[in-house]
Amino acid sequence: MTKPAPDDELVFLPLGGSGEIGMNLNAYGYGPPDARQWIVVDIGVTFGREDATPGIDLILPDPSYLEEVRDNILGIVLTHAHEDHIGALGWLWPRLKAPCYATPFTAALIREKLREHGLLEKVPLTEIPLKGKLTLGPFDIDFVTLTHSIPEPNGLAIRTPLGLIWHTGDWKIDPDPLIGETTDVAKLQAMAEEGILAMVCDSTNVFVEGSTGSESDVRKKLTEVIAQCTGRVAVTAFASNVARVETALHAARAAGRTPCLVGRSMHRIYHAAKSVGLLQNSPPVIDEEDAGSLPDEKVLFLCTGSQGEARAALSRIARGDHRNVSLRQGDTVIFSSRVIPGNEAAIHALYEAFLGRGVELITADDHHIHVSGHPARDELKQMYQWARPRIAIPVHGEMRHIREHVKLAQALQVPETIAPNNGDMIRLAPGPVALIDEVPAGRLYVDGSVIIETEDDAIKDRRRLAAEGAVNIALAVGAKNVILAGPNVSVRGLTMPDEDDLELALEELERTAEAAFAKLSHADRGDDDAIEGAVMRSVRKAAEKLWRKRPLVDVSVLRL
């Protein structure tokens, strides 16, 4: 490796995942400030919430800064296949246009995403073998085997002329992960002997005492629970947790049940796992259409939708509108998953829908049928003992997680720590760690098939509509600038105690609109914009008095 030039710097730049859980996008730069070369590590999404982002399913990190330097981006390196690490690739790759690198299982899922976006033939995607190596300019990268809740989780040992960075990605310490190898402790210890400049580390479970537990323990308990069930059984879990999927398949066989996959993501992950040699000893699955011919006690449905997603399979089953799967009294739904913060209301609504149908529910509160894929405090302490970094940089957490992680690192005698925000340009070397700049960082919304800014008027209007309702006014104006028909008023999202009261309110708004028109000068009556502005202002004031709300008011002027 070449020696650093006098003005070379090594910098870390988080653009997603610092100050939030999800939407991970990190970059490392090397070289002089005016000519750095970059690698991007992960490029993920987070998910919208109907109460905060109505109509928005996916949220992306804003890559504006990286677009400015994209000619100097050497590659996009993906640590593993969770959506919060690869989900934005198909949306944002056209803005970055850099080659991509991933291990086989992750690459298989990336190809599916690229195919959906029509990019499969355009994106240079290189498969890196497990424990493989990669050189991109001044960056020598080793893929280091870890354990997590998805196949092939990799940490990255990133060597540069100014030091070694240990980027953990998502991880835990599982002595028996069921799928894949255990944590490569020998590699971590060798890196520590070499000297780790900085460890950029997962903070998700920093408040959780002890250790997270092993997938092998979940397999034992889930098999016991399923064996005790009568009627039809549905198990819901994160589809990406292939070890959990395998557990459900094996538990079904042990209970004399035939497994049936339900949900697009479940099928996609299942086939991706099969394509790289996983799930080879699992029992075969059947199609939804064939499950109806089996006795209730002989079928197990493995479903997507553990977080209450409205369009996922489990929610459709709960509503009774799934075309092939139904559950009723005497059946059981097993939630082999955790409640992701922010999804509580949707999940509890799902519970209530099933309970209303007489369906029994079993959750991780009842039995040990789920473990996290992220490190609890004892595991974090162990990682610091193995790695012994000079600098601790917590990521993958809300700010409360990151600051607690900083305190933990300081208690473990790590010499330097820093709590990053998205957009912080952090110099790792030479010299002490330091915040040297702030760059644009934020969010983009996927609205249907387009990407929009967070402050787009459409989003503001949807929030307003949800909170305040809408008033629509239509009037026809003749050639002599007099009203020939209307004003006709209709409302959405606004009501009154009874229909008579609502009818009186609409009549009052019509009189208000007509009075606003009458106050206009003859010249302004010939200007549709002037009419719309005057009527809108007057009707909004009247509506505020009637409902104590400020609804959106839309005025339509028809010229006859």
User: Any idea of the CATH topology of the largest domain?
Assistant: Metallo-beta-lactamase, Chain A
**How would a crystallographer describe the biggest sheet?**
8 strands, mixed
CATH architecture of the largest domain: 4-Layer Sandwich
Q: Total helix count?
A: 17
Q: Can you tell me the number of structural domains?
A: 3
What is the CATH level 1 assignment of the largest domain? Alpha Beta
Terminal Cα separation, in Å? 78 Å
Structural class based on helices, strands and sheet pairing = alpha/beta
Q: Uncertain runs with pLDDT below 50, 5 residues or more?
A: none
- Helix coverage percent of residues? 25-40%
Mean model confidence by pLDDT: 94
Cross-sheet strand order for the largest sheet? 8-7-6-3-2-1-21-22
User: What's the CATH superfamily of the largest domain, by name?
Assistant: Ribonuclease Z/Hydroxyacylglutathione hydrolase-like
Cα gyration radius (Å)? 28 Å
Net shape? globular
Total count of strands:
27
Bin the strand percentage. 25-35%
Could you walk me through the main structural features you see in this protein, from its secondary elements to its overall organization?
This protein has 560 residues and is α/β, with parallel strands linked by helices. The chain has three domains: 9-210 and 372-453, 4-Layer Sandwich (Metallo-beta-lactamase, Chain A), CATH 3.60.15; 215-362, Rossmann fold, CATH 3.40.50.10710; 469-559, Roll (Ubiquitin-like (UB roll)). The chain contains 17 helices and 27 strands. It has an eight-stranded mixed β-sheet. Helix 15 (499-518) packs antiparallel against helix 17 (528-547). It is globular and about 90 Å long. The model has no long low-confidence stretch (mean pLDDT 94).
